[in-house]
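Predict the holo structure. Ligand: protoporphyrin IX containing FE.
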Amino acid sequence: WKNRRLRALAKQLAPRSIALPFVGHAYRFLGDDEDRMEMFKRIGREALEKSGLLSHWQGNRLFILVADPEAAEILLKSCLDKDDVTKFFRVLLGNGSIFAPVSIWRPRRKLLAPTFSQKNLNSFVEVFSRQSRIMVDQLRSAAGKGTFSVWKYLTAYTMDSVCETTLGIKMNVQQKPEQPFLKAFENCCRLDAKRICQPWLYNDKIYKFFCPANFELHSHSKEIIWSFMDKIIASKREYLRKEKLESNSSQKCKQDLKTFLELLIESPGGYGSVELREETLVIVLAGTDTSAVGTAFTTVMLAKYPDVQEKVYNELQEVFGDSDRPETPEDLPRLKYLEAVIKETLRLYPPVPFIVRQVKKDVTVRLTLVEGCGLFISIWSIHRNPRYWGDDAELFRPERFLDTPLSHPAAFMPFSHGPRSCLGYQYAMMSMKAALSALLRRYRVLPVEENNKMSEAETGSREAKNKSSEAKNRSSELRVKFDVMMKDVNDFEIQLDLRI
Ligand code: HEM
């Protein structure tokens, strides 16, 4: 009976392509990382044509792809469970809050939330600012030397910032990039992203049999990550124990800046070692690549649109003048245009292009979504839905975030929406602003060489161009791929020129 209801729902929202026995529509995800993202986009566009909902069989599981913010808002409030396809991430993260069942997630979120208070976040700005200065210094060797990928600099910056603020350890990845822990993280993400799209490999025994090397690499990478985290947590516990003893005996002043890890260890009720590892891993995993991707896409967009970059630079001049002083918590809210540029980039290139949930109880959004089906909430498609963003939805126009309020609260949701949305939203915005501020105060960002020539020609004749051709120029897409996060196929290549 349940299957019959699922099949009836699938039929009502059927896509143009046919579902094959055993694999459903998953054959459409064959190919490389770029092909997979292309397919997500294509399905998303089809959902937009069909009033925002589309069915998709992933093997024998029915998923509904959601491209409409009104439906997404209801679903993200009422369907808090993550779908079973996220079980691969749970191998690494255990019951870490991001993919945990609701009964485990709820109390952990409560405990974690106060650690993102404005007071704590403000105290992290000093770290963001110091770490972004290191990044800017490291970039000196690439400036004026042609095209290069900015990715490794940004990901090292976010890793160092997240580890210093959340764990209280100075990883120095920016100075020493060869860390086995980082490679292991990368391996797990890449392997999980691929497996999630291949339902014929969901079963562990089949995966182990047909892909023994991948299975082995995943297990080995997990061991490296776990033992690294366990060592950090043990040394932090020891540090806190000693600090407590010392402060008892000498009334020594305790440090002001509390890391997430310290706050978790000292929280009333306390976390056990496994829970501590799970939650710190969640924050490192959720906080590192996401912010690096957001910052990297913004950098590429600034290279592509020099007039936008000039406006950002003028704003930075207003706030900092010619001074080289570090960013403070008071500076960041003043960078309003930079914030609009970051938001517009996150709209067009959301680092997490879709969210996966499961319907545990029938829920009605125009029609009834049946218990047992999965949900792909497509952030990518919601952000390009012309009903909410207008006819210029595909265009890069940061001013839209200054001109007009959102047409729907869930129309913009790079950090998701509802009770289970991103806890690090403000943290991420502050970290990205600090990094981009430091970068743009020191350098002018330029597109890669071939495009650069084209762009100079375009810039020269720009004045003469009418608005519609500018609009056309602004809609030209970056090539993207799916690798748990959504990333640039060209590895975020740019050029830099020293400003001062
Ligand atoms: C541009 C940067 C970021 C983006 C786009 C992003 C996006 C997201 C998304 C889409 C989710 C899933 C929400 C859902 O399933 O509905 C999430 C969850 C989460 N994020 Fe972020 N995130 C970013 C940065 C960060 C940072 C910097 C941190 C922490 C330092 C963080 C911590 C978390 C946590 C703890 C969760 C789990 C929340 C829960 O399940 O209660 N995120 N994020």
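The pocket of protoporphyrin IX containing FE is lined by residues 97-98, 105, 109, 162, 282-283, 286-287, 290-291, 294, 351-352, 355, 414-416, 420-424, 427-428 (CB under 6 Å). Residues 451-474 have pLDDT under 50 and may be disordered.
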